[in-house]
Structures are given as C-alpha cells and as structure tokens.
Design a protein that fits this description.
By secondary structure, the protein is mainly alpha-helical. The protein has eleven helices and no strands.
Length: 204
C-alpha cells in the first residue's frame, strides 16, 4: 500500500530529526526532504507545531500497534498486558527504529521543545498514558506492582533516550528478564521483598 502524502511528510520529518537533529526541523527543510512544495506542506501542516503534534499522534498509534502485537503474541492471562507494555517499549519496532535509536534523543528533543512552548499540546499523550495505566492496573496482577513495572520501563526508556546511563545489550536483556519475572503473578512481589528489608533495617 502506497504511503499517503501526509504520512510521507511525517516520515521525512522523522528522518530529518534523527539525521540532522531537532534544530534543523524547519518547514523549509522538511519540504525539501519530502520533495513537496512549501504550499503543499502547509496544506497538511500549517505550522511546525501542527507537524510535531502529528508526529506525537503517530508515535502513539505506532506504540499501540506494537502493544497490541505483543498482547496477541502472549495470548492473554494475568500480567500479559504489563509484559506487552515492557516489550513494546523496549523491543518494539518503533522503539528500535526511532525511540531508542542512536539519535532518538533528537526526536525527543523536538517534541519536548514544542511542549515547552505550548504545554496544552501534551494532552493527547497524557490521555494515552491514562489509557495504558488503566489497562495495566486491570491486568490481573497487583495494580501497584503493574504501576511499578510501568515506571521502571518508562524510566529505562527515558534513561536510554537521554543517554544518562549506557547499558550493554546483555545488561538490557537482564533488566528485561527481571521485569518479565515481576509480570508473572506467581513470582514474589518486589514490594514485599523491599518492605521486608526496610523492616529488618529499621532503627527505633
């Protein structure tokens, strides 16, 4: 199926960010990259903010596509949605190709730059996160455990995107393996273990 002109422009904008950085994201450069006239670009995206928001909307769609894929692959059951969330975030096609790619920080920077100017534009992403959290809290495992796994996954994703800490592929796989264990209802709850340690070390 041939990509629509609108999607082709968004793909070119994404490529431009990843290749040249967020500072190079101008409508003129996007039009040149997409091989469309400036008028043709403005027909689909009157402002740069409109284009970035469309990129965010498409990112949400791609992530939810990957999430649905892993949910189907896992076949359901307690903890399967939480595990699918972890896999989509860290192993899904969008995560590997854009979000956690070598220049994924540039994509994140472009999005955050627009959000900083107009915080209200974050609303679609807030709504998406609310949907995901509701799904995880109703996944058949302890809701707090599911929330902690979600926070751990998101923290690892942002850590990798921002380059604060660099994990080797083996370390990443080990972290994901631990997260997988916590998604299974038969495994010990990490909260219980942590609480036990705190109790043992408490000083009156």
């Amino acid at each position: 199926m041939q990509m629509s002109k609108r999607d082709a422009i968004l793909s070119c904008a994404e490529t431009l960010i990843l290749r040249d950085g967020s500072s190079g994201l101008t409508l003129d450069r996007i039009a040149l990259e997409a091989q469309v006239s400036k008028g043709g670009l403005l027909y689909h995206f009157p402002t740069k903010e409109d284009l970035v928001i469309a990129l965010v909307d498409r990112t949400i769609q791609f992530f939810e596509r990957d999430l649905a894929h892993y949910k189907q692959k896992l076949g359901g059951g307690p903890g399967s949605t939480t595990l699918a969330y972890a896999l989509a975030s860290l192993r899904g096609p969008w995560a590997r190709q854009v979000g956690l790619a070598n220049h994924g920080l540039e994509f994140l920077a472009a999005v955050l730059a627009v959000f900083a100017m107009k915080p209200e534009l974050m609303e679609p992403l807030r709504m998406a996160y609310a949907r995901w959290q509701t799904a995880l809290r109703n996944d058949g495992i302890d809701p707090m455990r599911a929330t902690i796994i979600q926070l751990a996954v998101d923290g690892l994703w942002f850590n990798e995107s921002l380059g604060f800490m660099r994990f080797t592929p083996d370390e990443q796989e080990a972290i994901l393996t631990e997260l997988k264990r916590y998604c299974l209802p038969s495994n010990p709850d990490p909260l219980v273990a942590s609480a036990s340690l705190l109790t043992e070390g408490a000083v009156c």
